[in-house]
Amino acid sequence: MDTVLSIKNLTKHYGRVKALNNLSLDVARGNVFGILGPNGSGKTTTLGILLDVINKTSGEFAWFGQPPSKEVRKRIGAILETPIFYPYLSATKNLQIVAKIKGASVENIDPVLKRVELYERRHDKFRTYSLGMKQRLSIASALLCDPEVMILDEPTNGLDPQGIAEIRELIKEIAKDGKTIILASHLLDEVQKVCSHFCVLKKGNLIYTGSVEDVSKGAVTVEVSAEDDDLSEILEAYEGSTKVEKDGVHHLVSLKEGKTATELNAYLFSKGITVSHLNTQRKSLEKQFLELLAESDNA
Fold first, then answer.
1. What is the DSSP secondary-structure string of 218-259?
2. Mean pLDDT over all residues of the chain?
3. What are the residue boundaries of the structural domains of the chain, listed by start?
4. Which of 72, 183, 234, 291 is the most exposed place for a label (fewest CB within 10 A)?
5. Which of 147, 163, 137, 164 is nearest to 82 (CA)?
6. With pLDDT > 90 as the criterion, what percentage of the chain qualifies?
7. Does domain 221-282 correspond to CATH entry 3.30.70?
């Protein structure tokens, strides 16, 4: 595994407040890595330290196996806050200024505008853009230097559902190019749809890290409905279930790990029951997230 970012015991104190406490984790090349946590968990502090915007108290981190430096940062594109563009200038003019500041080629401007689907509006003034278009332009500015890593802090914050969907698809497209993406977000559903891996922070402490795919593995719950008075008893007698609950018109059947809805359906059919509704519910990232926070409270 090619590690792009390695963090070891990273700590940040603001007086007596521990914003970050001995954080250690690795991010592999090509990952879309989500940093999750409630407000005050240390997400933005972590990104700020990684970009040398905030000074760490202790610990260390390395990009591409090298200590942080000006040369290393050139390989990273970042959006920590909403970038300030000139409202009376067009997207092209604004990016020309950004390119000059970053030392990027102006020849990159049209390609990145096409990538974020703003090319047709490239000559329109920034102030005429919607919030979603402004966010896409900020992503275009981060792409100007063709970075290997993209860091995004709450990239869909404040956007409407359409804007969120557009940014989500854009992040997926950027990831397909092989770029590593690290993003902080509180929108759990969006992280589940976009990220390959994630970690959870709480009060500056790392309480979980793993792959998004693993969240949906393991035991599942199945919604079942059928016109049969004995359905509850028959479901409870099923050897592959661990718990049966009634939820409105449906029965919720928690299956043992490895058991499937297809096997449950076959069992019911063998008992003379034809189901009218059968739906598999896998654990969502939101449920996993809330369980992790609850477990940390009880630890």
1. S--EEEEE-S-TTHHHHHHT-TTEEEEEEETTEEEEEEPTT-
2. 89
3. 3-215, 221-282
4. 291
5. 137
6. 55
7. yes
Structure tokens at 109: 């401007």
Beta-carbon contacts of 238 under 8 Å, excluding residues fewer than 6 positions away, are 253, 264, 267
pLDDT of 8 above 90: yes
Give 135-175 pLDDT, tens digit per residue: 999 999 999 999 999 999 988 888 888 888 899 999 999 99
Q: Which amino acid is at 159?
A: L
Asked if residue 219 has pLDDT above 70, the reply is no
d(CA 52, CA 69): 9
Extract the tokens encoding 148.
């290997």
Give yes or no for a contact between 179 and 115, defined as CB atoms under 8 angstroms apart.
Answer: no
Check: CB of residue 30 under 8 Å from CB of residue 46. no
Class of domain 3-215: alpha beta
- Per CATH, 3-215 and 221-282 having the same topology is answered no
Q: Is the dihedral of CA 15, 18, 19, 25 positive or negative?
A: positive
Q: From CA 55, how far away is CA 13, in angstroms rounded?
A: 10
CA atoms within 13 A on the CB side of 121: 15
